[in-house]
Amino acid sequence: MKINFAHPASVLVLSFLAVIALGTALLMLPLSHAGGEVAPLMTALFTATSAVCVTGLVLVDTGTYWSSAGQVIIMGLFQLGGFGMMTSATLMGLLISGQMRLRTRLLLQAETHSLALGDVKSVAKLVLWVTLAMELAATIALTLRFALGYGMPWDEAAWHGLFHAVSAFNNAGFSTWGDSVMRFVGDAFVLGPLMVAIIVGGLGFPVLHELMVERGSRRPQWSMHVVLTIWGSIALIAAGTLFIFLAEMNNPKTLAPLGWADKGLAALFTSVSARTAGFNAIDIGGLSTESLALHYTLMFIGGGSAGTAGGVKVTTFFVLVLVVWNEIRGHRDVEFRGRRIATSVQRQALTVLTLSAAMVSLAVLLILPLTPLPYEKVLFEVISAFGTVGLSTGITADLAPGAQAIIIALMFIGRVGVVTLAVALATNQMRRNYRYPEETPIVG
After folding, report:
1. Residue 158 counted as domain residue
2. How far apart are CA 376 and CA 399, in angstroms?
3. 442 in a structural domain
4. How many domains, in total, are found in the chain?
5. pTM for this structure?
6. Domain of 175, in residue numbers
7. What is the pLDDT of residues 14-61, one digit of tens each?
8. pLDDT digits 0-9 by tens, 237-255
9. Residue 83 placed within a domain
């Protein structure tokens, strides 16, 4: 197999691999370990991959196992991973030279999934300013709450505020506390800023770009992508909140001990976080079977395209929903809001969903013989890794090294994208100048 290293997809894959390798090496340094020791290779590699791929699954407790320097390295890794390696490199060149070459634009477009090549420069600028603004705002809000509401020293409050703000915006799910944010389950002044950062980061930069461009219009002409992403996200969050609230309200391991207002807040946060953020305000291991099944769906779908979220993406899911709906209604074309959805987009959505489902199924089949753990917990862990979510029922460290290696591969593929990885490894991609005769096999 011949890999085209000049292809933007190949550059993206190799860039992520390089940063993971660098992160692993840095985390194995004695200064990164709280006890001044050399971290085992698997622990460092797993943590670096989880950080760069903005997942949040860990083998060790971030706040106690790693030193302050190690935590800074981890934060830097998930900032780079969420921001996008090519986006970061291009922005640096943009700030220095004030211009971008065509190849650089193509590389950035591959990372940000910009809707048009001409949008790349403005999207790149928006990535920078939105990232800085959201992380700064969330840091200030959390720092004030930790210092004034919980009596933390200002330097400690600022560090925890910064770490969790960056982690939330990048949908990384890393926390300096072993219980994630369960200690703040009823605190809207902590969970609120985290949710806002998670949602904004997960919408995707093309959506944010269009919202900014159209904000001064009396009648904004939102594209189909923006409508599907925003309304789809709202629908998933609302449905998830209601389902979790009803399923867990009497569960003594999760929502039952809380007051009604706190139940609602916890259910909302859990629904938001399930779509690739990875924080948990309630015990994920204590969820009912019904809530675990809901998490499978939310984690697999994920957030918006070209954002910090993972999963197959909201637009992918709802494009296929529209395909099914229009087929049921007998429409020749897939229509939405007076527009047709291109056949190529439909095929791409189907490809992403099929490859992703196949990847999850294969991983489960490979891991099950390596562990005595229950099927539902293994499936949860696999979808969480592939969707770069980071939620866990608590089995990550209990998996065999071979199973942990599979989880590492899933996190990487989930961040880079199954289609991007396939394109990076593909050879001789050529358009045919002919078409075969059509035939209609029986379906169903």
Report:
1. yes
2. 14
3. no
4. 1
5. 0.90
6. 8-425
7. 888 999 999 999 999 999 999 999 999 999 999 999 999 999 999 999
8. 999 999 999 999 999 999 9
9. yes
